[in-house]
Amino acid sequence: RRVHGVAVCNVLLLRGRARIPRGASRVSLRFVANLVSDRLLERGEREDEANLAYNVNDALSCMPSLQNGLDVNVRFQSIDDCDAGTAQPVFDLLGVRLVHGWLADPGDAALAAVLSGRGY
Length: 120
What we know:
This protein has 120 residues and is mainly alpha-helical. It has five helices and four strands.
């Protein structure tokens, strides 16, 4: 599955960690990428972790992928069982919890057994 930059931007907007220009009826993909990049860089300036610069660098390298979406592999065990691969630092640094609804019906034990440990 793919998580688009607009979704990440929406989380930041809803949390009050980003703003769009007053009166804007739309924004460009460049605006979204810059907004997300700015938040990642701000996080890097506020924290003093040994590997933070490396994580920020990894996250920033994903910015060109925002247009087509960041790859996320969902697994069927729980709503937050997923792997964002190389895009994981974007979500971790921004404090965005990834959840999905790709779960088997709990009443269907046979399907749950087939899907156990598998992903999309």
